[in-house]
Amino acid sequence: MAKISVAICCANAENTLEATCQSVQWADECIIVDSGSEDNTPQIAQRYADTYVVEPWRGYTEQKQFSASLCKHDWVLILDSDEEVTPELAQTIQSLTQDELNCCDVFWMKRRNFVLGRHVRAWDPDWQSRLIHRHKAQWQSHALHEGRRASDPTREGRLQGDLLHKRTWASNADNFDDYFGGSRLDERLLPVARQMYDDGKRCRPWDLLLRPWFAFFKFYVLKRGFLDGSFGLLMAQKASVSTQLKYAALWHVQNLKDG
Questions:
Q1: Residue 3 region, left (φ>0) first, then alpha (ψ -120 to 50), else beta?
Q2: What is the CATH architecture assignment of 4-170?
Q3: What pLDDT was estimated at residue 66?
């Protein structure tokens, strides 16, 4: 099979980066791009990376594009520093034949998300396009996330096995940012709202009234969050509050722009 590079973007990731790197030691190359850590991230990164680069933050899409550009192999696995590749997923990637690779430019994989150390089943399946041919995949930009697609949908494949997201995040008992959001949530609200506005979306009174309730119903009932007891209730409430804040930010942006 083709050789695989792994590209990891990070910043202040001392609690999670080592688990990420250990999960991809089977890869042929590891590139780590640090956007300016002030903790022990550089020391951890330099133990595992074939190439370690400090690069000021360019944005979600641009930073990962830059990391992929540093790779010497065509096939690149894009990771965040709080994600881990399960053994099943690693085996699936390593077992890809040249014929399978020739048929695809992008491979999707499921991501299992963890909050407060617990798997959030209501967020499944969270499909991510992470294994890409770096010269053929097309990058898609978003205010918060990035994505990659093939120019032809028939050239996209799906892999067995999971990515684990934030599984080790709660190793620090005082860290509740993965639930409450904190400053990271504050920083992201307005960029998301501006993109929603640019995409033609507007906040109407019934959006503020009904969308948070529908988000709660979706994650607690339709996605069966109730099976997780009080934790499922917390996650449905989190979805409801996040939705309310997002549309409140959109209301603010459209009032500024539309007068």
A1: beta
A2: Alpha-Beta Complex (3.90)
A3: 96
